[in-house]
Amino acid sequence: MASRQNIVQRIATLREQINYHNYRYYVLDDPQIPDAEFDRLFRELQALEQQHPELITADSPTQRVGGAPLGEFKPVRHEVPMLSLANAFDDIEVEAFDQRARTRLEVEAIEYTAEPKLDGLAISLLYEQGELVRAATRGDGETGEEVTHNVRTIHAIPLRLLGKDYPGLLEVRGEVYMPRRGFERLNVEQEARGEKAFANPRNAAAGSLRQLDPRITAQRPLAFYCYGVGRVQGGKLPGQHLAILNCLREWGLPVSGEIRQVQGVMGCLDYYRAMAPRRATLPYEIDGVVYKVNSLAQQQALGFVSRAPRWAIAHKFPAQEEMTRVLAIDVQVGRTGALTPVARLEPVFVGGVTVTNATLHNEDEVHRKDVRVGDTVIVRRAGDVIPEVVSVVLSRRPAKTAVFKMPKQCPKCGSQVVRPEGQAVSRCVGGLYCPAQRKQAIKHFAARRAMDIEGLGDKLVDQLVDEALIHDVADLYVLTESQLAGLERMGDKSAENLIQALEKSKHTTLARFIYALGIREVGEATAQALAQYFANLKKLEQADLESLQQVPDVGQVVAESIYRFFRQAHNREVINKLLEAGITWPAPVATAAAQTLAGQTFVLTGTLQTMTRDEAKQRLQARGAKVSGSVSKKTTYVVAGSEAGSKLADAQALGVKVLSEEELLKLLGQSL
Ligand code: IVH
Known about the structure:
It is built from 24 helices and 24 strands. With 672 residues, the chain is an alpha+beta fold. α1 packs antiparallel against α2 and α16 (510-516) crosses α17 (524-534). 2-(butylsulfanyl)adenosine binds at residues 83-85, 115, 117-118, 122, 138, 175, 227-228, 290, 309, 312, 314.
């Protein structure tokens, strides 16, 4: 049996170790042991405390969540008022601040600290003999609210300071904030629970700290950085701000690693310019940087003016959120046919630019935020991100507003708009015809694995569409050499080549043609399966949902997409124009009648004379054969064209029968 003495000793050791590892993790950002090891120490302490409840102390790391919910928040008077900061919005205002301070101090240049201005909420932490005894919000600067029970749940805040040389009474001040990742996760959880999402990490942090039930706060991903001290008794602190922060860090309090000592106003502005582009990449939100006179003696000499120190200033980044009014909600059609509602806004300066549009993402988003024409909204533009509507200011909603409705017809081409079940995106199904989808559709049509129109690259498609020479894929086949030769970077020879390539592309296969139409959900394999099953374009066009689903691998979603595509008169028109232009393919062999090669596996290698390998593959598959990419003992035949490579050697090594092109054609029922 362990003696009581041993248990007391073990508990003390465990607490010390846990506090130290917490410090490595939260303050130094350099954990020394794996999480599992930490958990083991923690559980051992929990177990010992459970067996000996009389040994539990309030500063034990197990005691972060305790007690019942509060009925109300108690007011706390700040003996040293919690001041706010004056703001500077540009270099000139920062220079003026520095000038005023230098004049008062009668010095040439001032040494400053420059630090991130965290976007959270200010908190005061009172440590007595190293133990956290009280935490309070800033409130109006004179009186705040006691939130000790909630602050204790924040793991980055030590319940007991490390070391011994801290002042007997130490009031630490800093910012409680919510890191971006935690914020995003919290909002996902909020929505899953059917609760309202928080508009930004700052609101989320404030809402989490102002909870009467600490068990809720304990589940919120809050963090903390300190940036100064309030009351100090029974001990001395260094005479420079940065040196004080370094002491705090040694006592186990988290201090931002981004704080720098800088010289003069130039040093401040350099820091700002280095920080601005990094803003979006930091794991937490900052709304500016703070410059503070480093010397406490100088700070004292400067003093305060109306609730703000003369020795510090916040240099703000351009606001990322502003209020404005929704003038209209338009619907944009993307190159894939996706419909995006966009709020047209009264111009507003936000995130450093004037914003007139903000994306509303999709129909569900508009309804979730309930954005209506006439509403006053909060618009956000962070970094280079597209501006978005964060929320509606409901108190400013005018009378008689209408709920947003997604149009049933594409605003660009009038084709049907569909939103497949379970998906957030609504789409225009006029793929071949819709001007918004034109370029994408034509590029896909021309691609090597589709119609294989050599020389018709993306840039050329852009040019042809921009110059209004083509409106849809069928227009490609009426282009003339002289029209082409007139284009930028297009000589007579390339024009002639392109016309030839277009001619050549007219001889294709049904599978390629179906694939080239760019029907949503129809990739190469599905196009192949459709060609094989229907053998004829008319039958495919007229197929109902049921027969479409008979095709191998075609489920309900794919079937619906195909069905809808062919129901669009515009799409059928373009197809007819293509056929009139002379696009043809060899009549595929009726599927059921010709499974003469079922159960046989072919490998194709080298160049064939009468067809491409792709065509050969399709014809073989049409007769039930499997076509594989590598030779094995299971291969029935290797078909070798000219310049056959290693696959021919593999066949010979494995004793697999090799066929010539002529023999292949015989098998397929045709002679060379
Ligand atoms: S110093 C007397 N330093 O900004 C100086 N404040 O606008 C008082 N804040 O209430 C504050 N980061 O919540 C200081 N590095 C920083 C800060 C910071 C964020 C907040 C703090 C304060 C507000 C003033």
